[in-house]
From TrEMBL, chain A:
This is Peptide/nickel transport system permease protein. The chain crosses the membrane at residues 12-31, 103-121, 133-153, 255-276, 296-320. SUPFAM superfamilies: MetI-like. GO terms for biological process: transmembrane transport. Keywords: Cell membrane, Membrane, Transmembrane, Transmembrane helix, Transport. Belongs to the binding-protein-dependent transport system permease family. It holds the Pfam family BPD_transp_1. Residues 97-317 form the ABC transmembrane type-1 domain. The keyword 4Fe-4S does not apply. InterPro entries: MetI-like (IPR000515), MetI-like_sf (IPR035906). It is found in: Cell membrane.
Automatic annotation (TrEMBL), chain B:
Keywords: ATP-binding, Cell inner membrane, Cell membrane, Membrane, Nucleotide-binding, Peptide transport, Protein transport, Transmembrane, Transmembrane helix, Transport. It is a multi-pass membrane protein. SUPFAM superfamilies: MetI-like. This is Oligopeptide transport system permease protein OppC. CDD domains: TM_PBP2 (cd06261). GO terms for molecular function: ATP binding. It is found in: Cell inner membrane; Cell membrane. The chain crosses the membrane at residues 34-55, 103-127, 134-155, 161-182, 213-234, 269-288. It comes from the Bacteria. InterPro entries: BP-dependent_transpt_permease, MetI-like, MetI-like_sf, OppC_N. GO terms for biological process: peptide transport; protein transport; transmembrane transport. One of its GO terms (cellular component) is plasma membrane.
TrEMBL record, chain C:
This is Peptide/nickel transport system ATP-binding protein. PANTHER family: DIPEPTIDE TRANSPORT ATP-BINDING PROTEIN DPPD, OLIGOPEPTIDE TRANSPORT ATP-BINDING PROTEIN APPD. Residues 10-255, 375-625 form the ABC transporter domain. It comes from Actinacidiphila paucisporea. One of its GO terms (molecular function) is ATP hydrolysis activity. GO terms for biological process: peptide transport.
């Protein structure tokens, strides 16, 4: 079992290395930091631009493999280079990574749990009114792109605030700047700020999971072992909870990693729209600034997060299914 | 004896008279689909939206790029059906044009991605071995590779006609999950007896893939292509919203929504027509996909649906 | 009929079940007495399993159930879920068909039995776990304490079914319903499980309803039998009476359609009696007797009204054949047939015509034909790598699927290849069909060694060897019309278009199908017809050798007989040779000239059918034959059975010495010094007189029929 997980992990590391190399090659060839400096007002001297590019290690006159070798040599020691504004990528990374993770974790966790419960519930109540309502709502949510959902939530919040005449729902940034008060006030402030972004991530996760859980649960409902469970005298309810739900969770674990991929892309938009200074916003900004090192840093982060979620999915699968554990 | 044994004798070697001929598969699918009311509604909506997107531009005298300096930010009226934006462009003309672009991109991406997935998945699954390992690695790699990065870096640098490359890029990053499913279906098909039978008769591998494997995953592919159209439209609008997709002066639903967001509270017509059409289209496509799944998929038990009436 | 049957513990009255308006069960009355075993027989779709599930109240919610089910006088029909749950698993228990899917895959076997115990008894977890181990021990699971902690997928099929029985008897039920409990199992394992089931029933004194399609299983186990057809019981009687004097033409046909192991040694067995037609579709039942359209005895009055199930007058008193009858001797014989009185005393052949019976009987020639060799396999081996890991799969061992197989078929001969699942039969077939150099040993097809074939020669040779698969649905591409399916081998051999156009209708006619149906799709045909299509496809390129992989095991008995007769006819007409793979020894006895028995990838015995079946030399062959139930209650009860212990060892290890010794009854009885031969040397295939060969150090003929 441990050997199995170790092999999976090994495969992921190989995938990650290849993905990082490709990201670097792409960012370094497609982005044009030289043009970024040349477009500055007043126009700097070409020699100054050249000097700056060399200093940052993003000089397009140096061969690609030299630049990559230079970057990689630092990267293995944990130094991700300098941003185009000559600040440390590591510092920026450190500031932003927590922001993104808070958003991702809260949104996905809440959405996953709610989605699984909703899916199981609707499967049991198939074709009743409640099932139809939940199904329709999930379809509606699944048909709304994240960015649009985020914008709609924001518009809704503005309307609500206008109607109530307060600023109850805060949706810009992670916290109110310069807020006074004790830690409870700070915690409350953060929670309120977290509400809309988490909703926009969580609702879509909820919708996806409820659809999948509903269909795996329906498959389980017709299964032989559920019939056996009832044949030995469990009531329908008990049989569903003890035997049905538990087994229907197994296929969901594989699905976990695919969904996280979508969530991560969604988070880029969410951050940008709600003004969270996270990795997604950084990516959008650094592409605009032709900031090679930052772009590579964010891409690496994305690949790591996705692979980690794949690894977590493997762990979950093994934890849920003894057939994997014992083979 | 009332029945002479001789008459039975004639039929006895056939172990059966004939079962009454069941209706053809296509007809069954069609009937099951038509019985799915929401799916039928979805299909009608999709059809209407296509009509709107392609006939719409001819219904109004405004083109999407025309500017009416006499009407800036004007509310819907008989002159401008859906109002105008902040520089006096007709919102109806813009929206139907944007819809058209979004639909074309969505269709293109859906078909290309599903087709690619079918080829990669079927080959990986059928051939197995190193072909499989290589294709699976590529699939996994593209899955973790941030597609957003590639598209957002490449796309803004494309000039006119760039939307086509943009669409192909979208398709290039949209086939992996489908390919994985097709691969696992092909693996189980490879061991199925009719495929073995063909192999032992001397039918070549490419012919087996074309004649036995792909047709047997076709129903999944049809469903998947439908849903892929919906998600392609979502990706397209999302990227266009941030300026990484369709480039001005061309418009798509995404760019229109981006332009209208700021004015959504004060001048709602600039935002809600485009946003509404987007949601309605994707919703309709998803409903059609869901209905197709129920109608085509032999594993979706018809008893489930019929069971509802007889339940109590 | 009175409202309740005296002495019945479970009484089913007027049971009707509809699924979305389509009737599945149409008025079933069944009474189960304490301590008796009632066999419920019928073909697929006859409603036998639905009846059992309805008694438990376990049908899916879409089913419309009417009638009455009483347990000791308490009405169960219409009772709420809580009330029924208190009865299920406690007073009525059920054993299901497929033991793999019947256990929840994520819980340990022991825990699932504990759950059954603690649902109905107020005992501590420790005590329940203790009891679960005792139960597993009772059903003969070795090392029950360790096994209780195993997951379902770690059990073999036979062990799972035992565990299922342990769970069913956990709460000492009054009634056990067993739904096809041995259908998914090999014969030797089936014999073990039936034995356990009988023990469990005796220990608990419960009434047992044994649902099965297999007349042999019913004959050996049941006290009383009820026969179902199209949702109704058409005949019921004590087991001896029913088999000796069936009164309903359907029962008669069913008995005549079963190939029997015990045909006399020199003459060929009697021709099989196929029942013409197929059971009616439940949605389109005929107005009168549902069997009338297939019944040669049907008269006009049969087609008017459904005949009632009534007692038939006995022409003479039944001879008391049972040594100790478990049921009252005056048990009535009921039949739902207007001509029941006339049927008594008729033999299947008197009622059901068999076309081509003469052809089938014709081949009773003595000795082997002098024809040329069609297939010769010697020392064939095939190992599969045992892989681990999902991504970087690495080899951790080998599965010796085929490990020394010798086969020899001459022109016009039928060789039956027998063995249990996992014995390597199918792998042997596929290795032959690959037409390439085998891993070890040699394969010669029509005198050509496969190791030297060029691609072109191999392709040409493929036309000479064709295959018919087990599952006619799975072996026909559902997306192609039948005409294209049959034409595929012709196209693969690049036949001309007009030859294909000529050949397809000719082939359909040859296998007894209407050429006009060439444009239909496989799902429009019944199971038997689909298998005929499979045979037509195999015949398309005029092969010399047909390889048949369990061609009738997916079919109902009455249909199976038709296919076997067709195969016999085609062989006589076209001079074909067959390599006929089957786990069913009765079928092999019926169709084959010679038989070859496999165990753990090796040939252990080969010889003429009559010789091997009457004088089996290898202990495995003896056990195998002894495990096959005979559809004859009197003979079946009189037989001594060799019960093999345990399951075959894993083919991942190659044992030194004889691979069968761990389960061998001869080895177990040997004195110490002689045992060494078995543990040290693998016995070679040695001639035992004539062309009868067996791989045993101590061969001794032992009749087991």
């Amino acid at each position: 079992m441990l050997a199995y997980l170790a092999r999976r992990l090994g495969y992921y590391v190989v995938l990650l290395l290849v993905a990082v190399c490709l990201s670097y090659a792409l960012a370094a060839t497609a982005l044009q930091p030289r043009a970024y400096f040349e477009a500055r007002q007043p126009p700097p001297r070409p020699a100054a631009v050249q000097a700056q590019l060399s200093a940052l290690g993003i000089d397009d006159h140096t061969p690609l493999y030299d630049r990559f070798g230079h970057w990689a040599a630092h990267a293995v020691r944990g130094d991700l280079g300098r941003t185009i504004d000559d600040t440390s990528v590591n510092d920026e990374f450190g500031r932003r990574v927590g922001v993104s993770l808070r958003l991702l974790i809260v949104g996905t966790a809440a959405g996953t749990v709610a989605g699984i419960l909703a899916g199981a519930w609707t499967a049991v109540r198939q074709y009743r009114l409640s099932d139809r309502l939940v199904t329709l709502t999930s379809f509606l949510l699944l048909s709304t792109p994240v960015f649009l959902l985020a914008v709609l939530l924001k518009i809704g919040a503005i309307r609500l605030n206008q109607a109530l005449g307060t600023d109850f729902i805060q949706f810009t940034g992670e916290k109110t700047p310069g807020l006074q008060g004790g830690w409870t006030a700070h915690a409350k402030d953060r929670a309120v700020h977290l509400l809309l972004p988490s909703l926009s991530i969580g609702l879509i996760t909820l919708a996806t999971y409820s659809r999948y859980q509903r269909s795996t649960m329906l498959d389980v409902l017709g299964s032989d072992y559920l019939r056996t469970a009832r044949a030995k005298g469990l009531t329908r309810r008990k049989a569903l909870l003890r035997h049905g739900l538990r087994t229907a969770l197994i296929p969901m674990s594989t699905f976990f990693s695919y969904n996280f991929l979508a969530v991560f892309t969604g988070a880029i938009f969410t951050e940008a729209i709600f003004g969270w200074h996270g990795m997604g916003e950084w990516l959008v900004a650094s592409i605009g600034k032709d900031d090679v090192n930052s772009v590579v840093a964010v891409s690496t982060f994305a690949a790591v997060v996705v692979l980690l979620s794949g690894f977590v999915a493997d762990l979950l699968h093994a934890a849920l299914d003894p057939r994997v554990r014992h083979s | 004896m009332a029945t002479a044994p001789e008459t039975l004798l004639a039929g006895a070697d056939q172990d059966d008279g004939l079962i009454a001929r069941p209706p053809s598969r296509a007809r069954v699918t069609l009937r099951r689909f038509a019985a799915h009311r929401t799916a039928l509604a979805g299909l009608i909506v999709v059809a209407l939206l296509f009509v709107l997107a392609f006939a719409g531009p001819h219904l109004t005298r405004w083109s999407y790029s025309d500017i009416d300096y006499t009407a800036l930010r004007s509310a819907p009226s008989s002159r401008h059906w859906w109002g105008t934006n902040r520089i006096g462009q007709d919102v109806f003309a813009q929206t139907v044009h944007g819809l058209q672009k979004s639909l074309i991109i969505g269709l293109l991406v859906g078909v290309a991605a599903t087709g690619g997935a079918a080829v990669v998945g079927a080959c990986a699954g059928y051939f197995g071995g190193w072909t499989d390992r290589l294709l699976t690695f590529t699939t996994d790699l593209l899955l973790i590779f941030p597609s957003f990065l590639v598209i957002s870096v490449v796309s803004p640098r494309l000039k006119g006609g760039g939307w086509l490359v943009f669409a192909l890029l979208l398709a290039f990053f949209a086939w992996m999950v489908t390919a994985r499913v097709v691969r696992s279906m092909a693996i189980s098909l490879r061991e199925r007896e009719f495929v073995r039978a063909a192999r032992y008769m001397g039918v070549g591998p490419l012919r087996i893939i074309a004649r036995h494997i792909v047709p047997n995953v076709a129903s999944f592919l049809i469903i998947d292509a439908t849903i892929a159209v919906g998600s392609a439209v979502m990706s397209e609008t999302a990227l266009s919203y941030f300026g990484f997709g369709v480039q001005s002066p061309d418009v798509s639903l995404g760019t229109l929504i981006a332009d209208g967001t700021g004015a959504a509270v004060t001048y709602p017509w600039m935002f809600f027509f485009a946003a509404g059409l987007l949601v309605v289209f994707v919703l309709a496509v998803n409903l059609v996909g869901d209905g197709l799944r129920d109608a085509i998929d032999p594993t979706s038990r018809p008893g489930r649906r019929r069971g509802r009436g007889a339940a109590k | 009929m009175n409202a309740t049957t005296a002495g019945a513990v479970l009484d089913i009255r007027g049971l009707h079940v509809d699924f979305a308006g389509v009737p599945a069960v149409r008025g079933v009355d069944l009474a189960l007495r304490r301590g008796e075993v009632l066999g419920l027989v019928g073909e697929s779709g006859s409603g036998k399993s639905v009846t059992a599930l309805a008694a438990m109240g376990l049908l899916p919610s879409g089913a419309d159930v009417r009638g009455s089910v009483t347990l000791d006088g308490t009405e169960l029909m219409g009772a709420g879920d809580t009330a029924l749950s208190a009865v299920r698993g406690n007073r009525i228990a059920m054993v299901f068909q497929d033991p793999l899917s019947a256990f929840t895959p994520v819980y340990r076997i022991g825990d699932q039995i504990v759950e059954a115990l603690r649902t109905h008894q107020d005992i501590s977890r420790e005590r329940a776990a203790e009891r679960a181990v005792e139960l597993l021990d009772l059903v003969g699971i070795p090392e029950p304490r360790i096994r209780a902690a195993a997951f379902p997928h770690e059990f073999s099929g036979g062990m799972r079914q035992r565990a299922m029985i342990a769970m069913a008897v956990a709460n000492d039920p009054d009634v056990i319903l067993a739904d096809e409990p041995t259908t998914a199992l090999d014969v030797t394992v089936q014999a073990q499980v039936l034995d356990v089931l009988r023990t469990a029933q005796r220990e608990t004194g419960a009434a047992l309803l044994l649902v099965s399609h297999d007349l042999g299983v019913i004959a050996g186990t049941a006290d009383r039998v009820a026969v179902m057809y199209a949702g109704r019981i058409v005949e019921t009687a004590p087991v001896d009476e029913l088999f000796a004097r069936p009164r309903m033409p359907y029962t008669l046909g069913l008995i005549g359609a079963v190939p029997r192991l015990d045909a006399d040694a020199k003459g060929r067995p009697e021709p099989l009696v196929p029942i013409p037609g197929a059971p009616p579709a439940p949605a389109a039942l005929p107005p009168g007797c549902a069997f009338a359209p297939r019944c040669p005895l049907a008269e006009d009055r049969c087609r008017v009204a459904q005949p009632e199930l009534v007692e038939v007058a006995l022409p003479e008193p039944a001879v008391a054949v049972r040594p100790e009858p478990a049921v009252a001797a005056d048990e009535p014989h009921l039949a739902a047939c207007l001509r029941a009185g006339e049927v008594a005393g008729l033999r299947p052949l008197d009622v059901f015509p068999v076309p081509g019976a003469d052809v089938a009987a014709e081949r009773a020639a003595d000795g082997r034909p002098e024809g040329t060799s069609v297939l010769r396999v010697s020392g064939l081996a095939k190992t599969f790598p045992l892989l681990k890991g999902a991504v970087f799969r690495r080899r951790v061992g080998s599965v010796h699927a085929v490990d020394g197989v010798d086969l020899d078929i001459r022109a016009g001969e039928v060789l039956g290849l027998v063995g249990e699942s996992g014995s390597g039969k199918s792998t042997t077939l596929f290795e032959i069909l690959e037409l390439r150099r085998p891993e070890r040993g040699s394969v010669e097809v029509l005198g050509r060694g496969t190791d030297t074939l060029t691609r072109r020669e191999a392709h040409a040779l493929r036309a000479q060897v064709q295959i018919v698969f087990q599952d006619p649905m799975a072996s026909l591409d559902p997306r192609l019309p039948v005409g294209d399916i049959i034409a595929e081998p012709l196209r693969a051999q690049r036949a001309e278009r007009d030859r294909i156009a000529r050949r397809v209708p000719e082939l359909l006619r040859q296998v007894g199908l209407d050429p006009a149906h060439a444009d239909r799709f496989p799902h429009e045909f019944s199971g038997g017809q689909r298998q005929r299509i499979g045979i037509a496809r195999a015949l398309a390129v005029d092969p010399r050798l047909l390889v048949l992989d369990e061609p009738v095991s997916a079919l109902d008995v009455s249909v199976q007989a038709g296919i076997l007769n067709l195969l016999l006819r085609l062989r006589a007409e076209l001079g074909l040779s067959y390599l006929f793979v089957s786990h069913d020894l009765s079928v092999v006895r019926h169709i084959a000239d010679r038989v070859s028995v496999m165990y753990l990838g090796r040939t252990v015995e080969t010889g003429a059918v009559g010789e091997v079946f009457t004088r089996p030399l290898h202990p495995y062959t003896q056990a195998l034959l002894s495990a096959v139930p005979l559809p004859d209650p009197v003979r079946e009860r009189a037989r001594a059975r060799i019960l093999l212990p345990g399951d075959p060892p894993s083919p991942t290890r190659r044992l030194r010495g004889c691979p069968f010794r761990s389960r061998c009854q001869v080895f177990a009885a040997l004195p110490g010094p002689q045992r060494e031969r078995c543990t040290d040397q693998a016995p070679p295939l040695a001639e035992q007189g004539g062309d009868h060969v067996a791989a045993c150090h101590f061969p001794a003929a032992r009749p087991v029929l």
